[in-house]
Amino acid sequence: MTRLYKRKLESKLWKFMKRREILAIRGPRQAGKTTLMRVIEKRVRGKKAFINLDLPEYRRTLQQNPLDLIRRLKEAKRKLVVFLDEVQRVENAGESLKLIYDEFPDVKLLISGSSSLELKVNVLPPLVGRVFLFELLTFDFEEFLMARDPGLWRVFREKHENLMRFIREGGSIEEPSFIRDFLELWKEYVIYGGYPEVIKSPKEEEKRTVLKNVFNLYLEKDIATFFRVGETSKFQDFVKALAFNTSSIISLSSLASDLKLSYRRAEEFLEILRHTYIISWLRPFARNLVTELRKAPKFYFWDLGLRNAALENFSGFDTRTDRGALAENFVFRELVQSTDGRLRYWRTTGGAEIDFVLAKENEVVPIEVKLRGGPPGKGFHSFLKAYRPDRGIIVTLDTFGEQRIAGAKIYRVPVFYF
């Protein structure tokens, strides 16, 4: 029997099950969307149907005669819950779903899709006001701990919530415990990432094989088939270049020139990577939003296992030269999912830099990743002097402590708190 791991999105979706709106789940291929929908299906009582739209007959019926599909499934005066997997495969799916929604008030629809661009263009426009959109990425660190060590996860929850509360409103942060156990799992996570099949694989060689297959399937199905990119080798080189420069400020024009791509083609590749949930980017922090948009961004991967697969490098964390980049990328993803402020990086023309600045209303919180410890760098002091925040975070590998710098309460916290 296949073991199912708990996803945090399940409880969020369940809260909306009694509402009329369509629930749409989007995210990267093989992140667990189908499995999550199956889990919710099992919890539903009453009449329900799960439809795999990879099957041509159902795909054709939903496209040509959507009401007939529901008439076949639905019993009079009984509510029906319909799960439509990979709905972006249906031409003009949005119009069909709108028709079902308007004609059958007692039919609840849950849909999934693997490309935000396909959903945005072909599915969502007719459904404005009729759909709630959710994203399911690969496992974050909390979900990874839930799967691997539930006891350690319970400790993590307290530490993580305590850290997030400090970032939001101040206060104090609890000291760490079980440092060695946390670090062992964290180092595994930043090498192999959070794809469900990777987490299920007990051996390193198996994990590597799974990740290589995920990457190759992505190139074949998404890039070559849907986006019709003929030069997949150039696209692969582009991904590899971004992976090599993870957590760095990158000039797209310079990158395009190095890879002998036109600037426009590089932009297209970047958009594909963003819409298929491979990468994201971070804009610089400035009081002037126009200035933010003009400056070069920093790039990060949503899943570090896939990033390392692109580089074909699964070396252990302690022997790597990109340890800092891995840690910063990890913190980026966890901050994006755990905070609701405007996340940016900060850099001056003189080279002073802060990895992350979380801005919300009139407050800013600097967060610097500094695995080796030691005193804060010039950038941290410059930021404190310029913006006068009342608190900040220095992310370390395993050290903890509190100090006052320029009137701000600064905590050093282990990276696994995120």
Number of E strands: 13
Strand percentage, roughly? 15-25%
Number of helices: 18
Major sheet details: 6 strands, mixed
Structural class by secondary-structure content = alpha/beta
**Intertermini distance:** 32 Å
Indicate how many domains the architecture comprises: 2
Give the overall pLDDT as a whole number: 93
* Form type: globular
* C-alpha Rg (nearest Å): 23 Å
In spatial order, strands of the major sheet run 8-9-10-11-13-12
Helical amount among residues, as a percent range?
A: 40-55%
Low-confidence stretches: none
How would you sum up this structure, described in words?
The chain has 418 residues and is an alpha/beta fold. It folds into two domains: 8-135, P-loop containing nucleotide triphosphate hydrolases (Rossmann fold), CATH 3.40.50; 141-417, no CATH class. Helices cover 47% and strands 18% of the residues. It has helices at 8-14, 33-43, 56-64, 66-73, 93-103, 116-123, 141-148, 150-169, 179-192, 196-200, 204-226, 232-244, 252-258, 263-275, 289-294, 304-311, 323-338, 378-387; strands at residues 22-26, 47-52, 80-85, 107-113, 131-135, 279-282, 298-301, 342-347, 353-360, 363-369, 391-396, 401-405, 408-414. It has a six-stranded mixed β-sheet, with helices on both faces. A five-stranded parallel β-sheet has the order 2-3-4-1-5, with helices on both faces. A two-stranded antiparallel sheet has the order 6-7. A hairpin with a 2-residue loop joins strand 12 (401-405) and strand 13 (408-414). Helix 13 (252-258) packs across helix 14. The chain is globular, with a radius of gyration of 23 Å.
